[in-house]
Specification:
The structure holds 2 protein chains of 2 kinds. Chain A contains 9 helices and 1 strand, in the order βααααααααα. Chain A has helices at about 10-35, 40-55, 55-60, 65-75, 80, 105-115, 120-130, 135-140, 145-170, and one strand at about 5-10. In chain A, about 70% of the residues lie in helices and about 0% in strands. Chain A starts with a strand and ends with a helix. Chain A has a single domain (about 10-170), classed as PhyR, sigma-like (SL) domain (Butyryl-CoA Dehydrogenase, subunit A, domain 3, Up-down Bundle). Chain B is extended and about 70 Å long. The chains are: A mainly alpha, B alpha+beta.
């Protein structure tokens, strides 16, 4: 026999705990960026981490475990999103910019992000919060690299347009 | 000055990141609650549907399968059924699950493991290694059965498709199925594939890159403690 190695349940749980603590916030923020609802996203991300633990042997070997969690969380909320149209921007009544952000650049950008088509939001969220490269994003979403670039380009262009008048206005004040 | 022209993609993303990061989000819940939730989910899955795993031939038995295809990606799914080029997996009303292998296609271990887990079947499918426990957990014969029984030659041409039925309710607590998949590169069956299915203790097992004897099982496992499948190919009985 060769290449023997040991696996212990306790060490796996400790490993998962480390992963969970380090990944909770970026995963939650990525899902919030797509879902537009921190409250809904919180429950979906918790469920996704529970599923990650239930399948930890698989997830720990995943090339991008955090992306697995985010995708699982998004899938967990698929029925919720389908009612709103996953490939469509969130409707105005879905936007939930917190009151303490009203009127500022953050609120403007959040509104702009949540008005992007869902796929553009996903691509941008995976880049921003999980720091995934284009090829990995493509693999996670099951789309071509070129399609990721297209969504990224269109999303960033839309956000840039939102930033321009705000920034100019602020510069002129 | 036109800011639009000056902001790079990186700057736009950084600004967007800042805005999203300004959103207050919840602190992580206690990891214990997540682990408990995951365990409860896994328990529900185990008590609900069925399992299976790949492979055929009661221990000490070999099924010789002629395989001429390439790895078959998952192609279609319907509620209760997973169909791929290499196998079909059906959840039965009595809680068991049935796996039917297509000798004309090679199994994709990663896809099989993923599909098993999507059914809530606790199985670890490894390529190039097999995991086993010492001592071997008892009860395998109450969990897995194979049809047709005995030594069978199943090829893409004779219509025989090995069928494995798994009853997850019979799995002893703290165990899961281990499926080891090998591409043999030496010996009598060089060029063929081998898969073995055994029960392991989830809390204590070791893995080896050495394939078990093609007509046997991992060391320490008796004839009733697992099943072995030898995939024919260009070798004897392969087609």
């Amino acid at each position: 026999m060769s290449n023997w190695h040991n696996n212990r349940h306790g060490s796996r749980e400790a490993e998962f705990a480390d992963f969970f603590r380090a990944s909770w916030e970026p995963c939650l923020r990525a899902v919030v960026a797509v879902a537009g609802s921190p409250q809904l996203a919180e429950d979906q991300v918790a469920e996704a981490f529970a599923r990650a633990w239930a399948s930890w042997r698989k997830v720990r070997r995943h090339p991008a475990p955090r992306a697995w969690v985010v995708r699982t969380a998004l899938n967990a909320g698929a029925s919720w999103w389908r009612r709103r149209g996953r490939e469509l921007p969130l409707a105005d009544h879905d936007l939930a910019v917190p009151g303490d952000l009203d009127g500022g650049l953050d609120a403007t950008l959040l509104t702009a992000i949540w008005r992007l088509p869902a796929r553009q939001r996903e691509v941008i969220a995976l880049r921003i919060f999980l720091d995934l490269d284009t090829a990995t994003i493509a693999g996670q979403l099951g789309i071509e690299v070129g399609t990721v670039r297209m969504h990224m380009s269109r999303g960033v262009s839309a956000l840039r347009r939102e930033l321009t008048p705000t920034t100019n206005l602020e510069a002129g004040q | 000055m036109n800011v639009h022209d000056e902001m790079s993609d990186h700057e736009v993303l950084r600004t967007a990141s800042g805005s999203l990061s300004a959103l207050p989000v919840a602190s992580p819940p206690a990891v214990d609650s997540i682990v408990a939730r995951g365990r409860a989910r896994r328990t529900r899955r185990l008590s609900a549907v069925a399992g299976l795993s790949m492979t055929a031939a009661a221990a000490g038995t070999a099924l010789i399968l002629g395989l001429t295809g390439v790895l078959g990606p998952a192609s279609a799914r319907a509620p209760g059924t997973i169909r791929t080029a290499a196998f079909t997996l059906v959840g039965n009303a009595n809680g068991t699950a049935t796996l039917t292998l297509n000798p004309g296609e090679l199994l994709n271990p990663a896809a099989l493991q993923s599909d098993l887990q999507s059914y809530g079947i606790p199985a670890m499918v490894t390529s190039g290694s097999i995991c086993s426990s010492d001592p071997a957990p008892a009860g395998f014969s109450q969990v897995v059965s194979v049809s047709p029984a005995g030594q069978v030659t199943a090829t893409p041409h004779n219509g025989i498709k090995p069928t494995i039925t798994i009853d997850p309710s019979g799995m002893p607590a703290g165990t899961e199925l281990s499926v080891g998949y090998f591409q043999l590169s030496s010996g009598e069956y060089s060029g063929q594939q081998q898969a073995d299915v055994v029960l392991i203790d989830t809390g204590s097992y070791t893995c080896s890159s050495t394939p078990p004897d093609p007509n046997g099982l991992p060391a320490g496992y008796g004839p009733d403690d697992g099943i072995g499948l030898l995939y024919g190919g260009p070798g004897p009985g392969g087609s």
